[in-house]
Amino acid sequence: MAPRSEDERPTLEDVAAFAGVSRSTASRALNDDAYVSARSREKVLAAARDLGYSPNQAARSLVTRRTGAIAVVLSEPEARLLDDPYRTAVMRAGYRELADVGCQMVLLFSDTREDLGRTVRFLEGGHVDGVLVFAPHRADPLPRALRLLKLPTVFGGQAADLRRGVHLVDFDNEGGARQAVTHLVESGRRRIATIAGPQDQGAPIDRLAGWRKTLVDAGIDPAGLSEEADFTLAGGAKAMAALLERVPDLDAVFVGSDMMAVGALRTLSDAGRDVPGDVAVVSFDDNAALAPAMTPPLTSVHQDPREQVHAMVSTLMRLLDGEDVAPGAQILPVSLVVRESS
Amino acid sequence: MAPRSEDERPTLEDVAAFAGVSRSTASRALNDDAYVSARSREKVLAAARDLGYSPNQAARSLVTRRTGAIAVVLSEPEARLLDDPYRTAVMRAGYRELADVGCQMVLLFSDTREDLGRTVRFLEGGHVDGVLVFAPHRADPLPRALRLLKLPTVFGGQAADLRRGVHLVDFDNEGGARQAVTHLVESGRRRIATIAGPQDQGAPIDRLAGWRKTLVDAGIDPAGLSEEADFTLAGGAKAMAALLERVPDLDAVFVGSDMMAVGALRTLSDAGRDVPGDVAVVSFDDNAALAPAMTPPLTSVHQDPREQVHAMVSTLMRLLDGEDVAPGAQILPVSLVVRESS
DNA sequence: AGAGTCTCCGGGAGCGCTCCCGGTCGGCCG
DNA sequence: CGGCCGACCGGGAGCGCTCCCGGAGACTCT
Hints:
Chains A, B: Keywords: DNA-binding, Transcription, Transcription regulation. Chains A, B: InterPro entries: HTH_LacI (IPR000843), LacI/GalR-like_sensor (IPR046335), Lambda_DNA-bd_dom_sf (IPR010982), Peripla_BP_I (IPR028082). Chains A, B: One of its GO terms (molecular function) is DNA binding. Chains A, B: This is LacI family DNA-binding transcriptional regulator. 2 copies of one chain form a homodimer. By secondary structure, chain A is of the alpha/beta class. Chain A has 13 helices and 12 strands. A 6-stranded parallel sheet of chain A has the order 2-1-3-4-5-11, with helices on both faces. A 6-stranded mixed sheet of chain A has the order 7-6-8-9-10-12, sandwiched between helices. In chain A, strand 3, helix 8 and strand 4 (153-156) form a beta-alpha-beta unit. The radius of gyration of chain A is 26 Å and the shape is elongated. The model of chain A has no long low-confidence stretch (mean pLDDT 90). The first copy, chain A, binds a DNA duplex through residues 11-13, 21-25, 27-28, 31, 34-37, 40, 55-65.
């Protein structure tokens, strides 16, 4: 064997030669298999350290058919991602949870049409062992495209319009809305409006439904009491203004996200309405940086992205281990955190 | 050759057999090399399409020694990342710019001590061809650790305390601060305070220096006119309050970031100071979602993350092509965008 | 017509690793 | 003491790809 030049990366063969054992033994020692003598193991480990060896992942995954990497796909228009604190939290949680199980996160953004092709091509290229997907929009073509790939996949939140045969982890959006609105009803509010998120997404649809059903159950007519907004602060502010105009005597509002609630609070304050004196406000998300920091602190439906991602990762790991996990939705409970705004 | 079962992924060999050519020819056709007849090329392409072939990246990169993936490392405490709009913009820009040159972004977060080891291990594992690093903190050990790896690396902003021998793309922080403060001086302000970012980072240090020097050049004593904050909204608000207390007659403030400026505006408004009537406010970043959206809209030093990342990517690509790029800092110009707050 | 050139193609080697298989050596049992 | 079993190790095959090399035709030029 030609003497390897200094700047070439050492291979397993080099380590083995240096340690005076065979390539097989070196491999066994490094992957701590059984049937390696303590003496050999130590020599190999020392050799690896001395040579600064690190295994070539391409070669390894060529034979093991495992890459140790998991893709996290965020399918959402650019603007949304930038200021949606929930998405940021998801990225972070994904990184952490995957690191905990020894996997590397590969983040993919997919919002334009051309992204879809690139995303699919990347995923089928064998770069990753599995996928975690967040594709909240009903009309998103990505989830269907992913079904054709036979990559283990777990969805976070609703998978576009797919219902059966997929693994997904979602929060109890409708139940959360019910809790929120029930709380308002029980504290004596009667004119309970809502600012709903975009109705092209599953979660906001369910939250709106929860609001509506709870009102009906309480004998209140929901007609004219709802306004749709786009999950942004400005959108929330505008929707609140529209509601105040249409329903001047409203005494409570259930807002579909913290960010929109911040906007609603601003509008209410500008309009001289006291919260919670004149109008009670309850929102959804309970984002740690937003809900408790407002004036007044927001009552909000708590959902923890970390918990969601944790459940997704553990399902994915079971899938990767070849377990025959029954597909279906795993619904995580949410709980109302009552603060001063209601 | 045993008949390949349906759910196995087809290999290049399968495609070749299906097309009735050799593996070599199939490879040539797929990678559109020269010296393939149009006829063969077409047959191979059709076969690949019919079989749903996509090349095994592990095998490919084993021989080409290229992975087509670039790591983007964000070395920053968790809390900072969540609400720093600049970082979010950087991730996004990284994804886009890398996609444009046909590379996949692999995001790495690295904030705790144990992350450092994992990050380094991942990078030396040969998963990626190069690295883009954002490690603003002076004491960050990551940049030094990366020097030992012989991976092409480009830094975004200052690389901890490394100065020579690294490739980096930064903005003209000091020059930007000078522009901002000069603007204030020229519009007749004399008591010009500053809210500086964390002084364990290079950029805020340079911005503070720019403020100080400009004042001195204008014959103004900067003593007692500066306050340090942590780049957050709350931090900016608190620092503004401290300044108002200590320097009640201040008539302008240069804030080290948009986010802190939002906090400062809130404090000023609570204190009944009119902006820009009583106090002019100028900030840094010119974040599209923040600066123009405030009341009043903020005058801010404009820096475009996309531009920075673009420069980083192009330097990295040259490095990857084996070009002998001279190391050093590439300083991007910034410009003051004047709005109503000053 | 023979030499040279250019286009196209197939065979084979080899990237660095894992894993299977078979061999050796020592200890222990009947 | 022969046989067996378990611990340990080395050789070899092969993962799916790229790339080098040499060969087969077709064509041109002297």
